[in-house]
């Protein structure tokens, strides 16, 4: 296994009142919700095949001593945008990383690739590229870290906060806000999105493609990316990735429509 590298450094009536205020002040809040936890786990937390006791004949894990069997390292990610915005989420963990036999998979690089990959998928459907938003990304990254730290996988955190609330706690310039989340692992064989194949993400670029594939293979998440169904036309977006000590990867892709 690899190793993680350290990162850079009320009451019911009140809740109801806040809900009414939010309804009046916000034009809309779009969240691509997971239908049920079991469905979300199956679709967005691919099964680690090693944990199922499947023997080695069922899949191939690259041999760390055989460099010829290793996949290529990541290419240079396309530039995204402002990485140090004036406003950030206080819970933003900044960068996290995990070392594989191919490269050190850094969360920031994964975010760059996810942003570029999402814009490529949008371009394939005649949509304009989303502008990178560093503040939105910081809020997204803080949520990814919180899911890993408190061991849950949901749009609503254990404190009852929804995506829009998490954003408005930090800043307030989005009249519409959306969120896609995903969970997988780096440097472990997992079920590949959209089929019966397996995947073994050992580079930031491969991991990013796998995350976007998960979203594109789920109707509500795909609709959020491609602005279909009830999804609004987004202005900007931000990606937040957190890689845990054991290689667990939590990703949040958040969308914004400015006032």
From TrEMBL:
Pfam families: CAP (PF00188)
UniProt key word Oxidoreductase: no
Keywords tagged on the record: Membrane, Transmembrane, Transmembrane helix
All copies of domain SCP, residue ranges: 117-249
Keyword Transmembrane: yes
Region of interest called Disordered, as start-end residue ranges on this chain: 59-99
Coiled-coil region list: none
Transmembrane segments: 24-45
Gene3D superfamilies hit by this protein: CAP
Protein name listed in UniProt: SCP domain-containing protein
Organism in which the protein naturally occurs: Natronorubrum bangense JCM 10635
């Amino acid at each position: 296994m690899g190793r993680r590298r350290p990162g850079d450094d009320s009451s019911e009536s009140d809740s109801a009142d806040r809900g009414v205020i939010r309804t009046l002040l916000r034009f809309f809040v779009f969240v691509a919700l997971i239908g049920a936890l079991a469905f979300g786990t199956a679709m967005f937390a691919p099964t680690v095949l090693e944990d199922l006791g499947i023997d080695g004949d069922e899949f191939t894990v690259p041999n760390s001593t055989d460099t010829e069997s290793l996949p290529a390292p990541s290419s240079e990610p396309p530039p995204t945008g402002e990485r140090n915005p004036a406003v950030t989420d206080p819970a933003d963990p900044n960068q996290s990383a995990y070392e594989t036999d191919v490269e050190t998979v850094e969360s920031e690089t994964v975010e760059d690739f996810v942003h570029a990959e999402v814009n490529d998928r949008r371009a394939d459907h005649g949509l304009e590229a989303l502008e990178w938003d560093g503040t939105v990304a910081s809020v997204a990254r803080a949520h990814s870290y919180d899911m890993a730290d408190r061991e849950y996988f949901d749009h609503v955190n254990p404190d009852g906060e929804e995506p829009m609330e998490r954003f408005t706690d930090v800043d307030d310039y989005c009249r519409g806000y959306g969120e896609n989340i995903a969970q997988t692992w780096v440097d472990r064989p997992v079920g590949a999105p959209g089929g019966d194949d397996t995947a073994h993400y050992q580079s930031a670029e491969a991991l990013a493609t796998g995350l976007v594939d998960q979203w594109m293979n789920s109707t509500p998440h795909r609709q959020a990316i491609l602005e279909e169904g009830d999804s609004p036309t987004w202005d900007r977006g931000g990606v937040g990735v957190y890689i845990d000590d054991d290689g667990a990867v939590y990703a949040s892709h958040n969308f914004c429509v400015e006032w």
